[in-house]
Amino acid sequence: MKKIFLLIALFYSISFCQGWNATVTTSINEGAFTQMDLFTNKDGNHLVIKKTTGDIVYYNINSSGDVDSSKTEILNQVPISQTLSVQIIRFMLFIKLIT
What we know:
Blueprint: H1 2-15, E1 33-41, E2 44-51, E3 56-61, E4 73-75, H2 86-98
């Protein structure tokens, strides 16, 4: 009886497990940057990059690695500060996107 239960459990775990996509390469080519953050939600993968020039660039990427260029945003000349946290950058982008 235990063997049957284990076989059924093994069958269900193999049949209904989640698969992961293979590693993908994006078309994003950024040179020098000071900070980077990647977060994911139902809208996709969100990549925020703070360049050494002070610009902040936001990319929306799907699970295949394709960049949605209609959602790409650039904030120009944000003062360079090592104490500028990722949460502040996210908030600044949020304000930019909704205004």
